[in-house]
């Protein structure tokens, strides 16, 4: 059975450097057998993949790609709290915040960018509960932010 790291490689992805905090918090925190990540924004190489509201300046397709990058950044934060990603027992909960134009209602489809990544990387352990929430604005004017809770060994 492939490890999460091997599955990432099969997808042509690597775990990026952890996105440094932009305020007074840590990227991830372990308490007992759970890891909680801070909200992860779609930064790649230190730059946002997109800015603006989904359904206005940002297309749903670009927002879904942003959600995947947020998920990848969440995996990077999670990885700081375990020896390797095979220690993940389950992705328990995912929350996706989508900066949305007032009439945009496709937040769940955008959030699938992260959810599908977790399923592809962690297999059955990546199946999770989720909320997809439309919001007025996000830090750095990014269109998506994702956080997760993971159970680990």
UniProtKB/TrEMBL annotation:
Signal sequence annotation: none
One Pfam assignment: Ribonuc_L-PSP
Origin: domain of life: Bacteria
UniProt-listed Gene3D superfamilies: RutC-like (3.30.1330.40)
Ranges annotated as spanning the membrane: none
InterPro entries from the UniProt entry: Endoribo_LPSP/chorism_mut-like (IPR013813), RutC-like_sf (IPR035959), YjgF/YER057c/UK114 (IPR006175)
Protein name: RidA family protein
UniProt source species: Solicola gregarius
High-level lineage: Bacteria, Bacillati, Actinomycetota, Actinomycetes, Propionibacteriales
């Amino acid at each position: 059975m492939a490890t999460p790291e091997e599955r990432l490689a099969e997808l042509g992805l690597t775990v990026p450097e952890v996105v440094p905090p932009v305020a007074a918090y840590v990227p991830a925190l372990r308490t007992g057998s759970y890891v909680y990540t801070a909200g992860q924004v779609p930064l790649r190489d230190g730059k946002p993949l997109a800015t603006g509201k989904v359904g206005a300046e940002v297309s749903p397709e670009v927002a879904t790609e942003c959600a995947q990058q947020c998920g990848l950044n969440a995996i990077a934060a999670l990885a700081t709290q375990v020896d390797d990603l095979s220690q993940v027992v389950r992705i328990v909960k995912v929350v996706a915040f989508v900066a949305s134009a007032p009439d945009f209602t496709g937040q769940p489809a955008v959030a699938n960018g992260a959810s599908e990544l977790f399923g592809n990387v962690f297999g059955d352990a990546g199946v999770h509960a989720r909320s997809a929430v439309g919001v007025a604005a996000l830090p750095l004017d990014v269109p998506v932010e994702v956080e997760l809770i993971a159970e680990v060994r």
